[in-house]
Amino acid sequence: xxxxxxxQGILYVVATPIGNLGDMVPRAVETLQTVALIAAEDTRHSxxxxxxxxxxxxxxxxxxxxxxxxxxxxxxxMHAGDSIALISDAGTPLVSDPGYRLVRSARLAGIQIIPxxxxxxxxxxxxxxxxxxxxxxxxxxxxxxQVARCTQLQLLATDSRTLIFYEAPHRILETLQDMRDVFGLxxxxxxxxxxxxxxxxxxxxxxxxxVDWVAADSNQQRGEIVLLVHGAPKQENEAITPEQxxxxxxxxDELPVKQAASIGAKLTGLKKNFLYDWALxxx
Length: 283
Hints:
Layout: E1 11-14, H1 26-34, E2 37-40, H2 43-52, E3 59-61, H3 68-79, E4 84-87, H4 100-108, E5 113-116, H5 121-129, E6 136-141, H6 146-156, E7 162-167, H7 172-183, E8 188-193, E9 201-206, H8 207-216, E10 225-229, H9 242-254, H10 257-268, H11 272-282
Helix pairs in contact: 6-7, 7-8, 9-10, 10-11
């Protein structure tokens, strides 16, 4: 594998399949076969992939819990002329996977970094979801605790971009229920599960209907899951802050929509018609 002009090694950030081994690109195979060392999130997990493609390159563990000495060790090897490939268990490293500390340290050390593109679950899901893709925000995993999760969703409730999340199967139903409660019953959500695998499922509906569908079928609570949420309607000239949302939700719990909008306008300074339309979208 080539090195830089100063004879330093190169750090290759290599994407691997998220399920179907046919998605492994030839350039990734060649890179993994010819570097001096592979830094893998889980060497035991990656051994199956490497064996399938007859890749005999030595592996070393590198993950989120690796200490600074492991990063220093890898940087020293590249300074000495060895090129290293970074891989995660599946997909593109650094996309909710380990690698940030190593990549940043390598760049600060003047080491060349070359990405080898390939599979990425969130991009694959977005391409098939049928939601607006001109502007989107990847939020990774939401907090595991409900209070923190709902707080984060509240902060995103008025974001007009398509929102993309990863979620653990044992939390999928609770997360969808929280999205229903925070975003409103009619918000469109797409569940993309087990992408590229045998039981691949891509299902879109309003979030209330999606909650019922997942609750009724335990199979939808298994595997690797991506959730994609249609962004909030764009508002002309006005936007509602998390604090104003809290005020409106308190009012709506006690009052009819029209009266809540009228009082809310006095408390927030926003227009009554704007708050009335916003409140209807939450139902």
